[in-house]
Input
Amino acid sequence: MSEHAAQHAVVEKIDAWLPQTQCTQCGYPRCRAYAEAVAEGKADINQCPPGNEVTIQALATLLHTPPKPLDPRFGVHKPRAIAVIDENVCIGCRKCLDVCPVDAILGARKHMHTVIAQECTGCALCLPPCPVDCIAMVPVAPVPNAGPWPDYARAETDRWRTRNEKRLWRLAQRKQARRASTSKVVPTALLPSDANKIRAEIYAAVERVRAKKSQRNEKGS
Output
């Protein structure tokens, strides 16, 4: 086996022991990137809060190194939770769709979005970009006796890995298509009137949400 093939095999084994939440807490953009960094000695084995002790122990055994506690600089282990969108508040801005690493959110611009519960990894990456705070992380019961982790089943983590890979492939194809189209067409700048119109639409949507919240609060009091 060549050195490259041997390194690839190690990365595969490391990646198999990551829960594939794609949460970026480890400091890398996806689980695969963290696996590659561990294999190259650029990252430690205790940087995955979702995997916690199970992942740390497995990587320690795999790499013949002593186990160690989860490094608090990368977060703490939390019980499993999934994202839930308040569809009455959602303004359809698509910002959560753009950041979900496994395409677990369905929706279209100016239409409400919803989360596919069984596909949500609980990464919480959709929370920060939401302009109206309509997304909450809701705890879910652990999957009993389904895998090495108490919070995740092996079948889920394998599926999330595949969904992340398909998303990355789709985005790469889209980027390539845009490059091909822009090479044939002279790009035109966004007119100030268009930019102002977009800002006005977003502002109006946010104001509508605020009005709805105010009405609900008045009824509640």
